[in-house]
Amino acid sequence: MRVTEVGRTALGDAAGHEAVTLLWAPREPGGYALIVDGTATVVGDALDVVPERAVLHRPRGVLEPPDPVAPGACASDCVELPAQPSASARADSAGRVLP
């Protein structure tokens, strides 16, 4: 996916370290955040990111009181997503898909 509107610091970081994590905040209170781990390549003033893992994440108990969590278990409400790159997927820094 192509990520545009990337700042100079982020571009410099990605040029030196190809492993990146992208975060899109929830659209509404109590909603899920999207977290994408991937490998980035700097292309001009943008990043081409190949997703390797994607998760919808929401802290547990946002909409209702949390249930007890077993020791060692994740205490958050997460949904693992398939992270299959698409040659045509592009997003700007606000997470809007570009044509």
Description of the molecule:
This protein is mainly β and 99 residues long. The chain has one domain. Helices cover 9% and strands 39% of the residues. It has one helix spanning 8-16; strands at 2-3, 19-24, 33-43, 46-58, 77-81, 90-91. Strands 1, 2, 3, 4, 5 and 6 form a six-stranded mixed beta sheet that branches. The longest helix is centred in the first third of the chain and has 9 residues, at 8-16. It is elongated. The model has no long low-confidence stretch (mean pLDDT 80).
Short note summarizing the structure:
This protein is mostly beta strands and 99 residues long. The protein has 1 helix and 6 strands. Helices cover 9% and strands 39% of the residues.
Supply the key terms.
1 helix, 99 residues, mainly beta
- Mean of residue pLDDT values: 80
**Estimated structural class:** mainly beta
Order of helices and strands: EHEEEEE
The end-to-end span amounts to 11 Å
Morphology call: elongated
Q: Work out the strand percent.
A: 35-45%
Tell me about the biggest sheet? 6 strands, mixed
Radius of gyration: 16 Å
Number of DSSP-assigned strands: 6
Total helix count? 1
Uncertain segments are none
- Fraction of helical residues: under 10%
What number of structural domains do the residues give?
A: 1
